[in-house]
Design brief:
Elements lengths: L5 E3 L15 E4 L5 E7 L4 E6 L4 E6 L3 E6 L5 E6 L5 E5 L4 E5 L5 E5 L1 E2 L2 E2 L6 E3 L5 E5 L19 E6 L5 E8 L2 E6 L5 E6 L4 E7 L5 E8 L15 E3 L5 E5 L2 E5 L5 E6 L4 E7 L5 E6 L2 E6 L14
Antiparallel strand pairs: 1-24, 2-27, 3-4, 4-5, 5-6, 7-8, 8-9, 9-10, 11-12, 13-14, 14-15, 15-16, 17-18, 18-19, 19-20, 21-22, 22-23, 23-24, 25-26, 26-27
């Protein structure tokens, strides 16, 4: 059976999304959209127009506006429970925290005395431990500022409550999207050129161990055909990752359930809406949304009022 916006690989995907679900374009006219994050306080979506070097805001009531220009070609963003916004910046090679009062605080910029490559995506455990990926896309033309790398690897990092930076893995070709399982005992991290997702065990102190393959063969690793990039989990532990033709969906055991098809190259995604059951997908020049039957995996910032 053929569906308009779903490539069916297993019937279980229809427990997550209606077979007639619409993919709605909510805005267009950007250069390349990335890093979506929903603000429950403002009921709006913030996202990066990366090559355009702008951070934009969209809401049902107000439409689209520019909120930061230049934006240091920011990419992944997330909040903590206090409303601080954590931003990965390609041009500055830093992870920064922007407070609700507008203060800018550098969270990470160097490892072992050398500049980070270009922090790309970030996630917070509910106790505040931070994890971020550091590929070198932000040192390439268009998506960043072309310059030589100082590090010889593309790392996965953890920042503890005392602000100390820990290198958790250095064997990725290009670290990219990352997300937690609902119980936060697993951290999923994808590698774009290799077209796969790895999973780590997360200890009580946040350190990672037992790296292993979760899902493989998600495209050919070539940007033009679509790569594994942004990645999120729902409340049941299913994984959603952007890739060729749209958002690939895997269950918690790593079975590929199907693809929610997008009209353009899919780059990143995040949960939003009043009930956290809408997926917003940044796709090249546009942002789309699709209604799901499940909610996103709970993060502490979702309770902000």
């Amino acid at each position: 059976m053929a569906f308009k916006n779903i490539e069916l690989n297993h019937q279980k995907i229809l427990e997550l999304i209606d077979e007639n679900a619409e993919v709605e374009q909510i805005l267009t006219g950007c250069e390349f959209t990335e890093g979506p994050i929903w603000s429950p306080k403002e009921k709006c979506l913030y996202f990066s127009d990366m090559p355009g070097d702008k951070r934009r805001r969209w809401s049902e009531a107000d439409g689209v506006s520019i909120v930061k220009d230049p934006s240091n070609k920011c990419n992944g963003m997330t909040y903590d429970a206090d409303g601080n916004l954590y931003v990965c910046e390609h041009v500055t090679s830093t992870l920064v925290k922007e407070t609700p009062d507008g203060e800018r605080v550098t969270i990470a910029s160097h490892w072992d005395g050398k500049e980070l490559n270009s922090p790309n995506d970030v996630v917070l455990r509910n106790d505040g431990v931070i994890y971020f990926s550091d590929p070198w896309y932000g040192r390439m033309p268009v998506f960043g500022e072309e310059r030589e790398r100082e590090l010889g690897f593309q790392g996965l990092y953890r920042i503890t409550a005392d602000g100390e930076l820990h290198l958790e893995a250095d064997d990725f070709e290009q670290t990219n999207g990352l997300c937690f399982s609902p119980d936060e005992k697993l951290l999923y991290v994808n590698d774009s050129p290799r077209g796969h997702i790895r999973v780590f065990d997360v200890s009580a102190d946040g350190s990672l161990s037992n790296s292993r393959m979760f899902a493989d063969d998600i495209g050919d690793g070539e940007l033009d055909s679509g790569i594994v990039d942004g990645m999120k989990t729902d409340e049941k532990g299913n994984i959603y990752v952007t890739g060729p033709r749209g958002m690939w969906v895997f269950d918690a055991e790593g079975h590929h359930l199907g693809i929610i098809k997008m009209p353009e190259h899919a780059g990143n995604l995040n949960w939003g809406g009043d009930n956290w059951d809408v997926l917003y997908c940044c796709c090249a020049t546009s942002v789309y949304r699709v209604q799901l039957k499940v909610r996103g995996n709970h993060s502490s910032y979702m309770d902000m009022k």
